[in-house]
Amino acid sequence: MAATFASKCSRVGRSLWGGLGNNLSGLLSASHETACNHFLSQQQRTFIQMRTVLKVVDNSGAKKVMCIQALKGKKGARLGDTIIASVKEAYPNGKVKKGKVVYGVVVRAAMQRGRCDGSEVKFDDNAVVLVDKQGQPIGTRVFGPVPHELRQKKHVKILSLAGHIA
Amino acid sequence: MALSTSRTLLRSFASLSPFARCSNSTSYGDSLWSSEPRAIFKALLQEWKLGFPSLSRALYCSTADFKKNELLELQEVEKVLSDVRADNVKVIPVQKHCAWADFMVIATGRSTWHVKNIAQALIYKVKQKQKGAQRLMLPSVEGQEGGKWIVIDSGKVVVHALDEKARDYYSLESLWTTGTSEKEPIQDLEKALVKIRRKNNSKKQAKKSA
């Protein structure tokens, strides 16, 4: 399990052991921890809005999409919301081509989302799964972790195609 | 040394994934020291089963005494599917690798109308079960407008009604029977990057170096 995580991490450009090592060293030195976790020194993450580039985590053929509209919410889309996006980068032989306007469901967001038990969940990147207008996923598999919030938002199809559920 | 490795493992469980971070993950981590991590993690995930109406019921069902108050039971689902004459009904127990559902039922419909009918029949069964109750708790249905793939989520049992084409396209059984990690796309990538020597089918005589 750690090996698959490490391979996924290396793709993003971060090493799993590096991250865990940071956690451990943070545990040991309290002053370092408080300096790192000080709220003013951390980046404030916001919504997914127009011009946000997101990663595509299914095998529909697209690699990167740019959000052009968040369907619900005045400020932008959050975890579990649907967006309209334009494909900016795609694999050569895939179901979607570059320049196509698609719908997508946000499955990972850097902005934290509160859960009903009071905890918050946030991810390291912004990721989206492409769907059609009726909500059917275009790809057949979803990679990486997906949160439980999709069940509340009636995206059980994406949950059932996903391998790992956070 | 063993304690530190187990601590790193528990920390990775407590943070839910290498990418996800919980704000109060340290509090979960403290509770994880004492007992077996996997069971506690599964219990936490069960608590976070959001979305379907009988959330509180499912919590009590899983932890406290066993109340037969689920929206849809497995036997009822099978009976309804056989009544509606759905093809190729498959029941997959996913308790081991899915924390949010216990059984996945996949059924095929012969046409979009048939798929919609399967969903309607299941909802009718739930309504019948709750006849006379003050409030009707219905399972969540997705994909009702287009009749290609309808998912009925009733807590422990998730029913997928697809048509033939969608079933071949998504191939859900291969996803759940082989386990959580999907190895296929990585293998294709490896094959794509391998350099293959071109086949030499020319009839020209090879030059012999003297």
UniProtKB/TrEMBL annotation, chain A:
User: Which CDD domains does this one have?
Assistant: Ribosomal_uL14
Recorded superkingdom: Eukaryota
- The answer to keyword Methyltransferase applying to this record is no
User: InterPro entries this protein is in?
Assistant: Ribosomal_uL14 (IPR000218), Ribosomal_uL14_bac-type (IPR005745), Ribosomal_uL14_CS (IPR019972), Ribosomal_uL14_sf (IPR036853)
UniProt entry tagged with the keyword Mitochondrion: no
- Please provide the record's keywords in A-Z order: Ribonucleoprotein, Ribosomal protein, RNA-binding, rRNA-binding
Which family, according to the similarity comment? Belongs to the universal ribosomal protein uL14 family.
Q: What is this protein called?
A: Large ribosomal subunit protein uL14mz isoform X2
Organism for this UniProt entry: Ziziphus jujuba (Chinese jujube)
Lineage of the organism: Eukaryota, Viridiplantae, Streptophyta, Embryophyta, Tracheophyta
TrEMBL record, chain B:
InterPro entries given in the database record: Iojap/RsfS/C7orf30 (IPR004394), NT_sf (IPR043519)
Write down the Gene3D superfamilies for this protein, in alphabetical order: Beta Polymerase, domain 2
NCBIfam families this protein is in? rsfS_iojap_ybeB
- Tell me the protein family, please: Belongs to the Iojap/RsfS family.
By what name is this protein known?
Protein Iojap-related, mitochondrial isoform X7
- Phylogenetic placement of the source organism: Eukaryota, Viridiplantae, Streptophyta, Embryophyta, Tracheophyta
